[in-house]
Amino acid sequence: MQRRRVLFGPVTSGEAERFRRALSAHDTLLFSYMPGANIQYDPQNTTFEQILAQLPPAWEPEIVLFWSPEYHPIPTGLERCPYRLVAALGDWNLGLWKIFDALRMFDHILTDKRGVQVLQRLGFQNVSHSKLYGFDPDLHRRLPDEPKLYDVGFVGNLNHAVQGERARWLLRLARLSEKYKICIATGLYGDDYVRFLNRCKITFNRSIRGEMNMRAYEALACGSLLLYEANNLEVHDLYRDGLHCALYDEQTLEQIIDHYLTHEEQRAHIVEMAWHHVQHYSYAGQYSRLIQQAMEAVPEEAIGKARTFGKLSVSEQTRARVHQYLQSSFVGRVEAALDILNRCPAIESDPVLLNDEAVLCLMLASENSTPTVQVECLQRAEQCLQRAMALEPAHAVAMMNYTLMLYATGRHAEMEGWAHRALKSLPECAPTLLRDALPWSPGYDWFRVESESAFAEMGHNPDAFAHKLRGFYAQKLCFILGELYAHRDALHSAIHMYRQAFELHPQLAQPLADMLWRLNRREEAIAWLERAIEREPLNIEYYVKLASLLHEAGYTARLHALCRDALRLTQACPHLMGYRSFFEHVANDEPTTEC
């Protein structure tokens, strides 16, 4: 494969050495806003032209490969890059809504198969499928001295909102812990992660986008049998069921686990075949293929022609940059986004940008511990929101943000009226305002996940997406009203609002259950906790609360069934072991009545 001159980045400090090794077959320079790269930039002050000025004399890249625009801040002027400019887009499911317009800066976008489908629906034709992941042979390797401690293991992110669908499968896995040694782990990295995979006879895996994720390569490289979903969009491109991995579906999960744990010779043969096969998919091989694909996707005469970012208005370009910075993981992203916004001459006449400035100020106030800075930020946020609503009287997003600000600052009497005003304005709010204006919201909660999912599904239809957002924003407003009424001990009003908000806020099941219990509506209280467990099957706090209510009500059979599931979870999940004694105690402390 031809050696190419590649400018690659951004990379985190922890990734720099891995990328350097993986790209060693090419003449590669790394750039980043973090230490460890060949060229370092300050996202707030460095333009892309200034990055290029740091290149060695007589060295020009044939391609600039921008890694993970959903996580890394895009330097100003990137869209004017004189070379091939290609984005490698990974977790679009967690950030596409916010970076959608910023993707117009690139000549081409490489992503997974489902991402190609989503982006094409959104109007991008300069997109194609590529395998973005692989394994690092210097790290992900077989450790012959590690014993096989677990029959089936899983290690990964257990965020209830982000991985809600996978959590239901992990609960099924945990239920096998009475029969097999099951381990569901989280927070393992580097050598600890490698040791864990080596200790698993079978590694359970489930993708979030139908893609070949990192674990799909790493498990094989560490000598474990990969258990992957049969309807994965990409696995059949690389692996054969029964030769390199084992594929499961809704009906066969438990049977396949039983089969491969009772047929050790067959499992060992697949593991050996898979280990040899996966050597073709190290990061070095994957990135060489990816670079060749990117080069072919953008012939020299096509450089710049597919970039449509310059066709956006000044306000639209500013909004795109601000939203992309906020989506990134850059530590100073809020300050940098605010700086971009303040340089826009159109801000005073744009209700979307005024709202966004207010959200940035609210974020700064919540992140800063200096009282004077907090006060200044809150005052500025209030002024921006008032100006945005003056320009656009039906600006429901600004009203919602104003409501949240009033509640956060203890101005509860004012907040109630604004919340109802915002709810009333939602049907009248223009789709462009709903789509473009930032909501003040925390990190990867249910709102973030569900709104991104809705954008991927219906972002190409502005009216349909706006309708979905109206429902989400109504739930956010009902949540804050429920909090207000609960604080006043107005139980019936709080219950009504909490019910409206539950889908985006499953954690409301606990206070909702308490209120219903106080009103002697026991079955309703129990039902809401059961719904919360359906939404977040690995959230042990719901099991604790529900067990306490079932015990108090004397519902022995239901209590024992719940405790049995909870004990399976604590058996399978090392991070939940501290709850085991509670469920053992409550299960053995017999109540006096029965449902």
Topology:
Elements: E1 5-9, H1 16-22, E2 27-32, E3 39-40, H2 48-53, E4 63-67, E5 84-88, H3 96-99, E6 108-111, H4 113-121, E7 127-129, E8 150-155, H5 164-174, E9 182-185, H6 190-198, E10 200-204, H7 215-221, E11 225-229, H8 235-238, E12 246-248, H9 253-262, H10 264-278, H11 283-297, H12 314-327, H13 333-342, H14 351-367, H15 371-391, H16 396-408, H17 412-425, H18 431-436, H19 446-458, H20 462-487, H21 491-501, H22 509-518, H23 522-535, H24 540-553, H25 556-572, H26 580-588
Parallel strand pairs: 1-2, 1-4, 2-3, 4-5, 5-6, 6-7, 8-9, 8-10, 10-11, 11-12
Helix pairs in contact: 12-13, 13-14, 14-15, 14-16, 15-16, 16-17, 16-20, 17-20, 19-20, 20-21, 21-22, 22-23, 23-24, 24-25, 24-26, 25-26
Q: Which key phrases capture this entry?
A:
single chain; alpha/beta; Rossmann fold; Serine Threonine Protein Phosphatase 5, Tetratricopeptide repeat; 7-stranded parallel β-sheet; 5-stranded parallel β-sheet; 26 helices
